[in-house]
Fold Phenylalanine--tRNA ligase beta subunit.
Amino acid sequence: MRIPLSWIREYTQFPADATAEDLMAELVKVGLEEEDVHRPSDQLTGPIVVGEVLEKHPEPQKNGKTINWCQVRVAPQGQPQALTGEGIDPSGVQGIVCGAHNFEVGDKVVVTLPGAVLPGDFRITPRKTYGHVSAGMIASVRELGIGEDHDGILVLGTLGLDPEPGTDAIELLGLDDSAAEINVTPDRGYAFSIRGVAREYSHATATSFTDPALQVTVGEVAAPGYEVVLEDRAPIYGTPGCDSFVARTVTGVNPDAPTPTWMASRLRLAGMRPISLPVDISNYVMLELGQPNHCYDADKLSGAIRVRRAQAGEKLVTLDDKERELHAEDLVIADDDGALGIAGVMGGARAEVSSSTSTIVVEAAHFDPISVGRSKRRHRLPSEAAKRFERGVDPLLPAIAAQRVADLLVELAGGTDAGAVTQVGDPALPEVIELDAELPQRLTGVPYGLDQITETLSAIGAVVEAQQKGVLKVTPPSWRPDLTFPESLVEEIARLVGYDQIPSRLPVAPAGRGLTKAQQRRRQVYSGLAAAGLTEVLSYPFLSEEANTLFGRPEESEEPMPVIRLVNPIASQYPTLRTSILPGLLDALRRNVSRGFGDLALFEAGSVFLPGEQHGTAEIPGIGAYPGEQAIAQLQAGIPHQPLHVAAAFAGQEPSDEVGQAGRARDWADAVEAARKVAELLGVQLDVQQGRHQAFHPGRTAALHFDGKLIGFAGELHPKVAASLDLPARTSAMELNLEVLIDASPDQVSAEPISTFPPTTQDVALIVDEDLPAATLESTLVEGAGELLESIELFDVYSGTGIEDGKKSLAYALRFRAADRTLTADEASAARSAAVELAAQRHSAAQR
């Protein structure tokens, strides 16, 4: 919201010499954020004055263009030129070449004299052109930075101005004013008006405030106004789409009357472009009071004005000249010929005020914020009106705003207000809130007294009545729809008395407590993966249904995937919550690869969302009071199970330890090792078996088990999946249920003692059936080797020449060590032989 300083001074005691920065400094005290300062005069410097055209001589040129050689008086008649400088004639008459033709001798225009600087650092100097020395320029509104029209120069008479030559044009056009821009939070829609900001300034400075709404005298209803019918009797969003509507008729309007410079200047400073007098008056009142309104050409209306929901297939051409197909939930203003506008969002072009308009019907109504907000988003049609309605507008303003528009149409456009008014509906008024006088102190720690509470709430416009036992009955002001429960009143008290009054006290942590076991284990895992060279990323938990179906379950199925659907998704293509972390993690990997980072090892940990039998609750308990154990239990039952998962993804090469040497290509083994690393950090052991998953390569997939339960998968992505996701062809990944491993991890993870005796290493290569998993054979060798076996590692898998069909060779490195002595070769060989013998018994393994 931009606040012209000249405007706010009308309703507050803002000092005449104060700046926009001073205004923002005061508004920050009451919670309004500062944004920017707008000063048109910063882009307009030097002599810019009013000139009177004395002579105008058209001169055709060889290029087919006709220019005008003009003599323009820029000083009062009979007085010498007070300005000095290169190119400024002491006589007060300047010779100027002008290419525009929309002015005549005697017209008053804006002249930028040599030494002036216009927006865009356009400097005015005497220059020879078309055979003359042009000492200045007759300016257009575009060159002055106050409009877009560049087809002709600005003739001041069209604005109803007849100033004396030499008058300062910057001051005349209100370009010496400035505006402070503030950011308005969604709960404080009243601050989208000069009325609301002026009231906040008075709170911040403890000065008086003049309410502009109280300066309007609503006239008596002398005759029935234009017929209005409220047809929205079945509210869609819980409240009627329109609970009050005022229509006031003004006749004899001159729509071509010029907009006064003071009004046009304020509109421009407030960020709105002057269009025509009726439209400018409508916008001016909206900015002043915060009540959007609309002007209809009465002669273009057919039958009664009706407020209803849109009909199936109904279309509307809005004021931006775009045809829009309306939705059945759109609230519209209509007549017998169809929709006239989307209520609270934007009017239609059919009944737009034009140069032929003589009778205007002024509409001011109160619309449901939810209906307006959804229509605005549905049609992607942001507007100043919607910005205010969706945040809540004072329901008592329509009659005042309609009268204010009518008064200005009478004053500036020559209209007549005969008191033809229609008022339908009953606005919803704020409900009384019971406030415990001790609640503000309990919540903030500040000992507010009863008098201070009453005074503060009264200052915002609330009506406060004292009751017995320290309870206050508070009726919020009509312009504060955000005040609906006691805690919101406490926030107002804290805000206006000062947030700096709230004491800062750090809670004392109970002795002997620290991180929980789960927190400690999570940190161990995250730190360990980072130390192993993986980079942590975070992704959104919102997925498409296809991604959830692909990664959320191992096998393909025609049955729909059970998922948690979002009522209001962040984007239409992401309507569900994730059941797997991998889609978001792989998207982060894809994005990095597309930017040239080909060698990647990423990991992410977070919750997944698994639907249960109950999804949410039918009703959400209100705030401000404890809902009870039963309501809490129902809420808990409706919350989906959210186990903690960890996932990792790999692409490209692992960095080489040697300079100039290519690194090892990452593959499925890296994904399996990352899963094992997580288990190792937690002091537990995974059971890695051959597995299958629809998103993974059928021959390079490991199923991760713990305590007999499947808790994840690791391996190389299926080539088709990698291609569809624009990932490198040999991308590998893993995901497992971290919560299961954390729960099973011991309270203390003890390191194994390091033996000081040397190890003995022996290799063994066994020929087994091709379908025997290497992990199964490894488990058998470990069991057969006994306690002397310190580690076992698979280092070769071979099939081909020398190996019969259906068989494969698995080669392991076995390392033996004793804790109390140096092993002999015979002891190591005996342990190795025992392992081979057990493998032969169980798997018919033969040494190669």
About this structure: The mean pLDDT is 90.
